[in-house]
Amino acid sequence: MIKVPATSEGLPAIHDLTAAGINVNITLLFAQQVYEQVVEAYQSGLEALAAKGGEISRIASVASFFVSRIDTEVDKLLDEKIARANDPDEKARLAALKGQVAIANAKLAYQRYLRLFAGERWRALAANGAKPQRLLWASTGTKNKAYSDVLYIEELIGPNTINTMPLATIEAFRDHGKLRDTLQADVAEAQRLLGELDRAGVSLQAVTDKLIRDGVRLFADAAEKLFGAVAHKRIEILGDTVDRQSVVLDQQLKKRADEVADEWRAHGNVRRLWQRDKSLWTNSDEDRWLGWLDSIDDAQIAEYAAFASEIRKENFRDAVLLGMGGSSLGPQVLAETFGQQDGWPRLRILDSTVPAQIKEIEAALDLSRTLFIVSSKSGGTTEPNILTDYFFAKVAEKTGTGQAGKQFIAVTDPGSSLEQRAKEQRFRRIFHGVPSIGGRYSVLSPFGLVPAAIAGLDIAKLVELSRTMIRSCGPDVPPAENPAVALGIALGAAAARGRDKITLLASPALASFGAWVEQLFAESTGKQGKGLIPIDGEPLGRPEVYGDDRLFIDLALKGENDAEHEVKLKKLETAGHPVIRITQNSLTHIAQEFVRFEIATAVAGAVLGINPFDQPDVESSKVKTRDLTSAFEKSGELPREIPVCAEPALAVFTDDANATVLRKAGAGEDVASWLAAHFARISNGDYFALLAYLARNGENTSALQDLRLSVRDRRHVATCLEFGPRFLHSTGQAYKGGPDSGVFLQITADDAADVAAPGHRASFGVVKNAQARGDFDVLLERRRRALRVHLKGDITVAFKALHAAFERALA
Asked: Residue 561: pLDDT above 90?
């Protein structure tokens, strides 16, 4: 028999299982009224089975009515009342009810059985061979030693019932039990006893409601232990099929993480996650954004692979993805992790409006042999739109406007403005995204898989590995055995205790994964003054350069052992820093890490009490940017700015409020003094972020890395290095909406050469400058500690001047 509890959720299951020809044991049955509902579910299930030609004569069922637990609970309440009573007679009346209620309740339930299985409805079913659902007495061992050890056996003997007994009770009844028909005796007395209980102020319904809640919890606990054992065994059997994870936390943080995990277990939160229960978060619209929990289907995989084969035959040399944020960061991980596949196009990502970066990409292309992937969920994102304008015009110069569309495909949500454009310009193909998947969760949807297929990756293998991780993190896997949930709980608990600087470390082959996690963490959790602040690309240092606000995640590729790196990690653990290690079994297993970190982020959001699927502060920078570019379209120039400090190679900008504070702290006539005053605002628990609107290349990255590390090592704070405008769709959310612990230095530069944007008066350089200034204005409006340094003229000379200013400021 299938055991089903007599709860509001269980009653429909009783009907449906019976109607499907499955035997049912109804458990956790305490209340007479609920028993009637159970019989209704059973009989209506039989009727449904008979209506479709099923053999109802083959169905058996029992209704397990619990006995002694009722007396245990009622006696406690009676004892409390006896203790408070002053009248000896009242005490006696209350005491007379002890040990009597459970049997009275059971006898009256049996009366209902006799009535419910005697009417015309039941006779019709019985004529077709139906068997009555027998009452089964459960919980019959005597808990109170003052009562007879066979109390619940002797008083509950009657036709068509079953009595389950512990072995000790069976032996006691064999020894001294009295066998007689007792169930129908003293029915009036049973009714009177329950009336007396009610008049005494003890609610039998409240008792039975509590007992069923307690019973369900106990059953759930037992089930969780079973599921945990199965999950653990499953991981052992799968071996290297699933990436391994170990979590080492300090004592206090481990205690809190264990408490949260137990809360998740007790409340069934893993199941609530998979049920898309929005109340797990803020009860707003979270249920609309969980489409990424479903694996993509095999038909779509075949469709993308077939299209990729078609592209391969046409000998395209490059595939350039034009996108931002979630549309570009996932494909970038795949492109950089796997590299170019033999015989397939090289996948390149362009997610910048910086003229130098656009020209660098363009110079590497043979436009006649390049496929452009225009990727935008909404279709209205500025950067991919103007980049498409630019490259479409370039291709059209070579092929003609009517033919240019053959070198463009679109990945976008149904009905978007990009879809309309793709139709008008006759793009080669349009692939639809899933509206219930947000951009940063979309790497294992068409936004990531279409570019991956075009680049020649085995997307079927990627998806299958992702499914393995999905099953390892499924609704039946308890928190302690659930790798993604355990990670999310650790992150959420750490952030709530001030360890919110999540430092991402990775093997060289997996280095690009950090930028994807940055967006996932920061844009999902950085709001309402809370959040995870991801720290990517910061080389591992000595324990003493870190404050107590760090948590380290190390993603290592199996087989790439770095003894020096492991020694450093061990020193961090010894120093009390939390360290989470993940071993990725192969490059293709990156698909499992996408799943792990997506679920973990959703869990961390629930622990922090925020909605991890919105990004309320991203739009603010876009609005400022649109205002500035609109002003340029009208006047031909951006609003003028006046620096607070200027040198031949450098200029400093900020607002009046920040300038006043910094001047009081010693800012004067040189850039170094402004930087020194700015750095002096960094306190324990803060982070320092370099926001550079420069070409994202090796030379600039190296120069900026030197600057960030000089701040980390001398101020002992976490540091971030971000390139604009791409970070606006990523960490920008946390910088504006997350904890006010950021100290920001924006870096802009003159463009050596600008690039015109076809159809727009504003060039790419103007758009980039508007984005930088718009973002800076929002930081200042949010009263963030922000300063901007502009590099003038030759960027190499300006960088030398900036490095010198940093050295003096940090001295």
From this structure: no
What is the per-residue burial (b if ≥16 Cβ within 10 Å, else e) of 51-88?
A: eeebebeebebbbbbbbbbbbbbbbebbeebbeebeee
pLDDT digits (tens, 9 = 90+) for 383-431: 999 999 999 999 999 999 899 999 999 999 999 999 999 999 999 999 9
Long-range contacts of 410-414 (CB under 8 A, 24+ apart): 410/374, 410/375, 411/327, 411/373, 411/374, 411/375, 411/376, 411/446, 411/447, 411/450, 411/451, 412/374, 412/375, 412/376, 412/377, 412/378, 412/379, 413/377, 413/378, 413/379
As a residue count, the chain comes to 811
Distance in angstroms (rounded) separating the CA atoms of residues 368 and 708: 41
Alpha helices for 669-783 (secondary structure H): 671-679, 698-715, 732-737, 764-781
Instruction: Answer yes or no: are the C-beta atoms of 153 and 168 closer than 8 Å.
Output: no
pTM flag (> 0.85):
yes
Instruction: Give the DSSP H/E element, type plus range, for residue 746.
Output: strand 742-749
pLDDT band with cut points at 50, 70 and 90 for residue 448: very high
Q: How far apart are CA 784 and CA 580, in angstroms?
A: 31
Mapped onto helix, strand or coil, the DSSP state of residue 136 is strand
Do residues 267 and 492 lie in contact, with contact meaning Cβ atoms separated by under 8 Å? no
DSSP label at 431?
A: E
Which residues participate in catalysis according to the annotation? 3
Least confident interval from 456-460, 619-623, 737-741, 784-788:
619-623
Measure the CA–CA gap between 400 and 398, rounded to whole angstroms: 6
Tokens found for residue 439: 């951009």
Q: What is the dihedral of CA 380, 383, 387, 388, to 10 degrees?
A: -20
For the cut 90, the answer to whether the pLDDT of residue 585 exceeds it is: yes
Mapping DSSP to helix (H, G, I), strand (E, B) and coil, where does residue 728 land?
helix
